[in-house]
User: Fold these one by one.
Assistant:
Number 1:
Amino acid sequence: MTATHHDPPHTEYPAHFEPPHGPTWKAFFGPGIVRGAWMAGVGFVLGMLLVLVLRRWWGWEPYWKTDVILVVGGMVAAPLGFLGGIGAFDYWLYYISGRPTRPEDHSGHGAHSWKDYFRVNTDHKVIGIQYLVTTFVFFTIGGLMAMFFRAELAQPGLQFVDSQTFNGLVSVHATLMIFLFIIPAFAGLANFAVPLMLGAPDMAFPRLNALSFWLLPIAGVMFVSSFLAPGGAFGAGWTGYAPLAEGQPLGQTFFNMGVQWAGASSILTALNFLVTIITMRAPGMTFWRMPLLVWANFTTSLLVVIATPFIAGSQFFVMFDRIMHTSFFTPEGGGYVLGYQHIFWFYSHPAVYIMMLPGFGIVSEVISSMSRKPIFGYRLMALSLMGILVLGFSVWAHHMFIAGMADWLRVPMMITTLLIAIPTGIKVFSWVATLWRGRIHLNTPMLFALGFVTMFVIGGLSGVYLGSVPIDIAASDTYFIVAHIHYVLFGGSVFTIFAGIYYWFPKMTGRMYSERLGKWHFWLTFVSFNATFFPMHYVGLRGMPRRVFDYDEAFGDLNFVISIASFVLGASFIVFVYNIVTSWVRGPIADANPWRAHTLEWQVSSPPPIFNFDEIPQVVGGPYEYGVPGARHAIMSPGREAKEAEEVHA
Amino acid sequence: MRKGIVQLVAIGVVIGVLVTLVAVLFQWLPTSASEEFDRIQDIYWFATIMSIVIFSVVVAVVVYSVWKWRVPADDDLDGPPIHGNTGLEIVWTAVPAILVIALGIVSAFVLSKNGEAGNRPLEVKAIGQQFAWKFEYSDYGNFTTGELVLPVDREARFTMESVDVIHSFWVPNFGQKMDAVPGIETSILVTPTRTGEFAVVCAELCGLGHATMRAKARVVTQNEFDQWVKENRA
């Protein structure tokens, strides 16, 4: 390895730096996917040897133990090798070893061809798009899995798969949608938008940002490849309850470890957002002048940083129980079964807000600019995010009302759960009030935002039912829950992700999507979504438990309808992909500010210049001052304006 | 403006009526066969009325606004700069707060009522095992069966145990559900109110055979129950 390989790939190499063995050599040893692939292999072998040597040394028979080798070699050393190979650690390794580092000139910024998206890139705009494309790949995989098990569920009894595969499909579907789609898709949108909205040239830690992104596909590959493990994919649900998870075949370990990589990615990104938002706001950008998307990501990042270590812990404990024969959660060894659920939900309930608050932010941006009105009750909107953040940590045990935990814990947890309806209600009413007397542009982002508001109300209200302990006792673990979480996470989060993609598409690509196809996408999705998930409330209350491949004959007809509707829902996604891909390649060139929005990202060109702003803007007012005569959010070139003013005076 | 309010209210009423029809024309809940489920259904209706009102209000304002104030894509004016309204914000903080707290109080009341064991309930042990339920009648010499038989109008206390992983004991018509957790004992009360056959379902994913982990519950008269006990006790 020579320093030449740290030159940006798209600049010409000076003659004396030309690698001695030509381009093949460079592709093999230079940072990139190829070096990532073989270094992953090397990592695996080193990890395997480490296990074999240590087992031999301590005399632990048998020396070859597949699950241990898989964990150390396949799930720790190989991913580290991959990350080293693509060059995620190059700068730090050069720095540590005292070799000259590439000065931080951001020369890796920008993407000039599609190949640049497969490299470690420190530009937040490139990383944002890397995130989004990656997450939509996993969204497709997770969606296809859903189609598959909906086909199975169209009739009672087993038709297409065996029960381990069915459980695997259900578990991996949920895991991908949560850890590889909703959470990182929001991180991707925020990665693109937040630094621009703050008036910052990039995130606070661009190299950490790149590393956070590359941790993600590792987790995704682990979850998907668990299907190849002997015994099949992990099938204890995305909740992976002990002790069921502890007796699962090898595939469960893929979940235990995949969550670590996805969680690390989440935490690093959240730290990056926090530091960026706290320290890199443009002059004049006080907290009370920040767009609500920034507020939303600020609170989300706090949730991530505080809560995520808990799921990491819960999965490590399960894995230790599985392969090191500890007994954290096995009663025979003195373990406490419910301990798992407490630790798991201490993350996974806040995770519900991690999957929702950024969407609240997106919808606030879209509704305000498409209604041409200031957001109604801006401060209360920001404060209610903080309210949800605080309350969100005090409700985890409402997932355990029937789990057999201490009886006295149920009523306090019910009260805090119901109280969360208050800040959430404030947000919904404020969006609706923002519409009032506005000048409403009913384009695709707005359709998805309004679709979100109405669907989220249904999800929120079914959540109020479930908050009441006695109703929860009847409805818990049934299809009512499946309906509820899909109204919140699909009608809620996924709709906001679509709204965000359409809203920022012109800014990201410099091109405009097709409005006609966008509307088709919305209406197909909206109708088939309701046809799929609304009847699930019914079958659930009537007696169909969740996570079953077989069910009472009485639910046959309705399940058939649900399956057909879910295929239409899947097909509606094709319209989206077609629209996005064709528009990205040859859509009409977009204006810098097609929505006439006031926030900073719209005041620069589409796509934005490499360092976002030619001059750091001076923020002088709120972000949503629509209709206020002469109001400005920011002065984009304060230096030039000051000079002009001086000239006028002179 | 007055005309606008009338139109808005009309839209709200239409939506409210439609949603109410959806709520009452379908029988969303299974027929209650226990005192506990009767009480739960009362809260269910409380929550449903509340939900219909809130849903109708929100959707009516969305529909009305879009209908009334939609502009063509090339419109380049802004709306009125309304930044908020403290009175309104207080109202929509306070009203939901009152509603959810009321729901919470009713729920807490029902929960405690449903958890109050009366005088000497029938003791039944429900033992979950991959993938079948076993019922043990501790009052009658600990005989075990695979079929659950209960006398009508007599309170039964189920004590849950599991020999392997977590299961969840659920009879949809009783509206009561509780996990059977290895290592700890959990319990729930059921007072059957009508005779007949009901399904016992495992509600917590417990492995490969989870979907097929079902049993039958039969609620019979006290005489029939005594007869059944005599036959099975031997």
Note: The beta strands of chain B are 122-129, 132-137, 143-145, 148-151, 156-162, 167-171, 176-180, 186-190, 196-202, 214-220.
Number 2:
Amino acid sequence: MPVTTIAGREIHVDEEGFLTVYDEWDPDLAKELATGIGIDLTDAHRKAIDFLRQDYAAQGETATLRRVSTVGGIPTKELFALFPKKPAKKMAYIAGLPKPHGCV
Amino acid sequence: MTTETAPALVPNFDDDEAAGRKLAIICSKGNLDMAYPALVLANAALGEGVETHLFFTFWGFDMITKARMGDLKFTMLGNTATHMPQGLGGLPGMTAMATHRMKKQIAGIGVPEVPEFLDQIVASGGHLWACRMSADMMHVTEEDLYDGVEAIINAADFIEKTNGAQLLFI
């Protein structure tokens, strides 16, 4: 597993750059990760990221976009506005989680 | 101490690359099992930032007709992949049973029913179009169609709108 340095911290990532160790993430790191992909993290973003973190802890897998909207209660349209083009992957990255595996 | 720092490994989301990509899916079937491939792929493409158009024609109209879209059916008849005797499929109640079972399986993996799936596709920025010829044949107007359908358009309009798109016929 590659190790990369983000904001002065050594972080374990996969070949693409997604974090692989759940506990290496914290809210400060999220801000750095978001900046790295051109997103300025706001409270609205944080709400989605927090849901993803909690849901992963409970379910053991990253929530799909649909799950974030139906279970997390954040409308799909809003997710596309907050995390443009590829919301599911971008949210997962900022939340320090693997890409979602589900199809829908 | 070293002054060299490797650049941080950050996923490449290829935002610009996806910008030019378009997907067009022609939905010509009204069976439950033939509706899902288009919906799943459209949803996935939208989630990858790909401009996506769905064109509903012939039996595909059932997917966007308000009165029918929640009631698509699955039949064993003519489908050897169920590995059941074909004669069974013709018995009364078999289509209802097969449909019920498939809907349960689909719901079981958290995938929505057709109307809700279309809601999600529209919310994700997908474009829905209805075929002019089919509408005329079946005497259907925009009133009868799901609200997310942008317009009833003819084949030439569709070809124009999907200029440069990758195309799937289902």
Note: The mean pLDDT of chain B is 92.
